[in-house]
Specification:
Number of domains: 1
InterPro entries: Neur_chan_lig-bd, Neur_chan_lig-bd_sf, Neur_channel, Neurotransmitter_ion_chnl_CS
Largest sheet: 5 strands, antiparallel
Strand content: over 45%
Helix content: under 10%
CATH architecture: Distorted Sandwich
Main location: membrane
Order of helices and strands: EEEEEEE
Family: Belongs to the ligand-gated ion channel (TC 1.A.9) family.
CATH topology: Acetylcholine Binding Protein, Chain: A
Subcellular location: Membrane
GO molecular function: extracellular ligand-gated monoatomic ion channel activity; transmembrane signaling receptor activity
Number of strands: 7
């Protein structure tokens, strides 16, 4: 008996990439940008393929952080609550063991 179910979780989704256009001084410390400046930086268009619902946390401000190192390494983090689908095999219920995956694509 296969059944499509869902599960929810709150995560900090972090991505990191290098953008040489953002490199700066050889002895400078990493720069943390304000959440209002995020729209000025290229960000990968990542999504959750098995997502049924998602919410970006915005209390008291959007829970997003972006920092840039001197060599142009960008770290982007955002807090999300996700509801994801998962196909369950209930043939051995209640002695079953389920594995649900998070499918992320760009």
């Amino acid at each position: 008996l296969l059944q499509l179910q869902e599960y929810s979780m709150t995560v900090f989704f972090r991505q990191q990439w290098r953008d040489h256009r953002l490199s700066f001084g050889p002895y400078a410390d990493p720069v943390t940008l304000n959440y209002k400046q995020i729209s000025d930086i290229w960000i990968p268009d990542s999504f959750f393929r098995n997502e049924k619902d998602a919410k970006l946390h915005k209390i008291t401000v959007p829970n997003r952080l972006i920092s840039v190192t001197r060599v142009g390494t960008v770290t982007y983090s955002q807090r999300l609550t996700l509801t994801l689908s998962c196909q369950l095999d209930l043939r051995s219920y209640p002695m079953d063991n389920q594995t649900c995956y998070i499918y992320i694509e760009t």
